[in-house]
Design brief:
The chain has about 170 residues and is α+β, with helices and mostly antiparallel strands. It has two domains: about 5-75, no CATH class; about 85-170, no CATH class. The protein has four helices and eleven strands, in the order βαββββββαβαββαβ.
Length: about 170
């Protein structure tokens, strides 16, 4: 058992089971257009308890559960505790890829370097996709701020900052 609080969630799980199995505190689900959203309120390790291929990710701050009728539809995992810059982007993407590969999820494609280059040009880029029998995962990198943006100037950024995100949802044929 890790000393870092955990969120244990996967598509198809009842929110009651997520709360019971997770040690991280979760926000009260907020409703928007029939979809309820909750997130961990502290640094947490995200675990997808897939029956044959469970996978765990590095601690992060940017986890989100999307649910409908008390059942998780998808999870968004941000396995880092601060915004990413430069080579740190590829390190986090590579760690996510290694976790999924290590859990024997089927890789469709992956390129962290390519995603970093592309996100620097067009804001959001797909780094890779994986799947299991019932679940699909998409790893993306999104540029949030540049040194010349209003936020970049406010925070005194010297380079672009990024957010890595792994979206896990039900696989559609």
């Amino acid at each position: 058992m890790s000393s870092t609080p955990e969120v244990v969630a996967a598509p198809g799980m009842a929110i009651d089971e997520v709360v019971r199995r997770s040690s991280a505190r979760l926000s009260v689900p907020l409703a928007t257009d029939g979809v309820r959203v909750a997130q961990a309120l502290q640094v947490h390790r995200f675990i997808v308890p897939h029956a044959e291929r469970p996978v765990s990710f590095a601690p992060g701050l940017f986890g989100l559960l999307q649910m409908r009728d008390g059942v998780v539809e998808s999870v968004r995992i941000g396995p880092h505790t601060d915004y990413l810059q430069g080579a740190g982007c590829v390190v986090v993407l590579d760690a996510c890829a290694a976790a999924l590969d290590g859990a024997r999820w089927q890789r469709d494609r992956y390129s962290g370097e390519e995603a970093y280059t592309r996100a620097s040009q067009v804001t959001t880029a797909l780094a890779g996709e994986w799947y299991s029998e019932r679940v699909h995962a998409r790893l993306t990198l999104r540029r949030l701020h540049t040194p010349n943006s209003a936020a970049g100037r406010l925070f005194g950024l010297s380079q672009d900052v990024f957010l890595a995100s792994l979206q896990v949802g039900v696989r559609t044929p």
